[in-house]
Amino acid sequence: MKKCLRWGCFLLFCIVLMTGCTSSGKLDEGNIACVIALETVPAEFDAFRDEIHKKLDIEVFLNNEVNERTYAVHLNAENGFRQEAMLNPGFYQVKWCTESPFYIHMEAATRQAVLEVGADKENRLDVYVTNPEELAANVLWMEASAQILKEEIFARKVQWKGEVIDIKDIVNYVDFEYNQPVGAYGQAGISNLAERIGIVVMNETDHELSWRECAVQSVTFSSTNAILAGGAMVGVPLAEIVHKESGCYGTPDALDGSVLLGAGVEQIRAAYLDTVSGDKITIATDANGSYVMKMTYEFAVFE
Asked: What is the pTM for the complete model shown?
C-alpha cells in the first residue's frame, strides 16, 4: 500500500514538473483597464448565416509568467469582438490565438506578441484577420448555385469553391501532397488539412501503383468550400438535411449516434444509400446535432 502511495506521489510530482503550476486567471482580478479587440470587424461576418455568425469566436490566450497564470479572452458577436479586462500591471505574452468555427477558413493573429499593462500605458491588444481575401471568397462559395440544387443527390456532383464538378475530379482541384505508392490491393487515406478535405483510394491491381492511378473510393468534405448535390453543406444544422419534410435530403436510410437525437452523447451520423449505384452519403454532426461537421461521399459501396 505504501509503495503504491509513493508511486502515486511520484507520478503527481512528474506531472507538475512537466506542466508547471500555471493556472487560469480572471479578467477582472486587477485594477488597470485593458482592451483586447478585433481592430476591424470584417463585413463578411454579417454575410454568414445566423447559426454560423453566432459561432464566430476568436480566442486569445495571455500568459503572465510572474504570477504563472493564463488568461483566456473571447472575441465574438455577443461582445462586438471587443473584450475589456481589468488586469494587474505586468507583461502578458500572447500564448496563442485560435479561431472558430473551423470550417470557414478564418485565420487571426495579434499585432503584438506581448501586452504590457501599466498605469501610463494604452493597454490595448489589437487582433486582426490575416486572410481577409480568403474569408471573403469563402462567403461567396457558401451560396449554392441553381445547378447544384437541381442535381439528384447521387449524381456524384459537388460544388467546389463555386464550380460544379464531378466528385472524383476533386483530385485535380486540390493539391494532395502524397508520394508513397499504394501496395497491391491496398488502400490509402490522403488529406489536405488546409482545404479540410480527405480521400480514400484503392489499388485494385496485384502490383504497386501511384495513388493517382488508383480508384477513388470516397471523398470527405469538412468545410463550407463544398456543397453536395441537393444543397447539403458543412455548418448547417442537421435538421436542414435530414428533416422528413423540410430537409434537403429527407429521412435518412440509417441514423446512429445518440439514442436520442441531440442528446449530446456522441457524434451523430445520418446515412443515405442508393440501391442503383451502391453509393453512400454520410452526414456527420457534433454530439448535439447542432451543425454538420463533415460529409462523406462513398462510391459503389453496396454493389
From this structure: 0.82
**Residues 293, 285: contact at Cβ < 8 Å?**
yes
The amino acid present at 260, given as its one-letter code, is L
Tell me phi and psi for residue 300, to 5 degrees.
Answer: 50, 45
Q: For 98-138, what is each residue's pLDDT tens digit?
A: 999 999 989 999 999 999 999 988 999 999 999 999 999 99
Instruction: State residue 258's pLDDT score.
Output: 52
pLDDT by residue (tens digit) across 229-271? 999 999 999 999 998 888 999 999 998 865 444 444 457 899 9
Distance CA 257, CA 263 (A): 9
Length reported for the chain: 303
3-state secondary structure of 121: coil
Write out 46-97 in H/E/C secondary structure.
HHCCHHHHCCCEEEEEEEECCCCEEEEEEEECCCCCEEEEEECCEEEEEEEE
C-beta of residue 89 within 8 angstroms of C-beta of residue 119: yes
In three-state secondary structure terms, 104 is helix
C-alpha cell at position 95: 500564448
State the cell numbers at 80: 462586438
Rounded to an integer, what distance in angstroms lies between the CA atom of residue 31 and that of residue 166? 60
Grid cell 419534410 is found at 245
How distant, in Å, are the alpha carbons of 2, 21, 40, 149 from that of 257?
A: 44, 38, 40, 28
